[in-house]
Sequence to fold (222 residues):
Amino acid sequence: MVIKNFKLAPSILSADFSRLGEEVRDVSAAGADYIHLDVMDGRYVPNITFGPVVIESIRPYTNLPLDTHLMISEPERYIEDFSKAGSDILTVHAEASTHLHRTICQIKETGCLAGVAINPTTALSTIENALPYVDLVLILTVNPGFGGQTLIPEVLAKVRDLKSLINEKGYSTQIEVDGGINANTASQVVQSGADILVAGSAIFNKTESIALAVERLRNSVQ
Ligand code: DX5
Ligand code: ZN
Fold:
């Protein structure tokens, strides 16, 4: 039985926002690899979460990379702000980026790693030409906007196709998968080719300690 290596990026979307700094500190101590920050503007997605000021406030609580997922319209307007706030990775949605190559270059000029995200029914062909420029592709396995949704299994075929494309081209692009990942789904997501798993409600679920939730998720991957 080969346990595949994968990295875990807990999403603070389901954390206790009245104690966000401690939650970030605790999940970092529990063995997370990244902290996934779901920024939502209420326009690109039907929910509003937080902006650069919250990223700035949690920065001192962890040394882990802050993996910022921008679910916002015209993300190019805020690249500087999120970078200055302390983000290490900035991921924009292909569907929200009119000039994706220019935005990717803008992200890299700040020193951040650049990611491009696609929604469940957005075709891989939309981002194929961006692969030489991005450090990671974030594949949404739910419709963006809320935590605690069910993973859409058909999207895993897209993860497999992306993995094949990256291998065929010889790229080192990482595949991050986001949405509905828990102890029941993590294995198939990793087996589909994911390098980084985002998990929010499975980690910050208030029914068990963060450390136990992280351990359970990691041990569920066969
Ligand atoms: C998009 C968000 C969520 C979140 C993960 O809505 O990006 O997918 O990170 O939430 P869970 O792990 O609860 O599905
Ligand atoms: Zn996300």
About this structure: Residues 156-169 form the longest helix (14 residues).
